[in-house]
Design a protein that fits this description.
single chain, about 170 residues, alpha+beta, Rossmann fold, 6 helices, 8 strands, about 30% helix
């Protein structure tokens, strides 16, 4: 089964933790395939996938005839390719629209923002940072680090500081 979704013998022998995000996603999908799931709940399934694997996932989902997939994604091109219905949350209710994302936008032009990842209705403003408890000045440093070095580690370990000294 894993071979049919692109896993090599070497990849099958290594720990799951050593796989990239894309391969972990493919592993989760392969697991669902083995379980013969009736419903697939996919949250951002194209995250961490390269173009080739997004196409593989798209073809796989479109080929499913006995499975319902509920997908949350910001990838509008992917949603256009795989969706036959859109369930939209509006006015505290779920409303069903027939067709893919492009058809939904034809019916609800204000939803064009889904293609542009922008919305006139949303504006994010970060508050001005206040004082830290016990700190009376924003100008003086509260922590100084000395003897800090950084080195890229092998793939098995995360990069990070090798050694550091600090005083507060």
């Amino acid at each position: 089964m894993l071979g049919s979704v692109g896993f090599t013998e070497m990849m099958r022998a290594q720990p799951v933790a050593s796989l990239s995000g894309g391969w972990k996603m493919k592993l989760a999908l392969a697991r669902a395939m083995l379980m013969k799931a009736d419903i697939m709940l996919l949250d951002e399934p194209t995250n961490h996938l390269d173009v080739k694997n997004v196409k593989w996932l798209q073809d796989y989902l479109c080929g499913l005839t006995e499975v319902t997939s509920m997908i949350v994604s910001h990838d509008s091109r992917f949603l256009d390719a795989v969706c036959s219905n859109i369930i939209h949350y509006e006015g505290r209710k779920l409303r069903l629209y027939r067709g893919n994302l492009a058809e939904f936008v034809k019916q609800r032009p204000e939803a064009k923002a889904y293609y542009e990842l922008a919305s006139a209705d949303l504006k994010f403003v970060l508050p001005e940072p206040g004082f830290l408890e016990g700190i009376k000045s924003k100008d003086k440093p509260i922590l100084k680090m000395t003897h800090v070095s950084f080195q890229c580690a092998p793939a098995a370990a995360a990069p990070g500081p090798r050694s550091a000294g600090w005083r507060g």
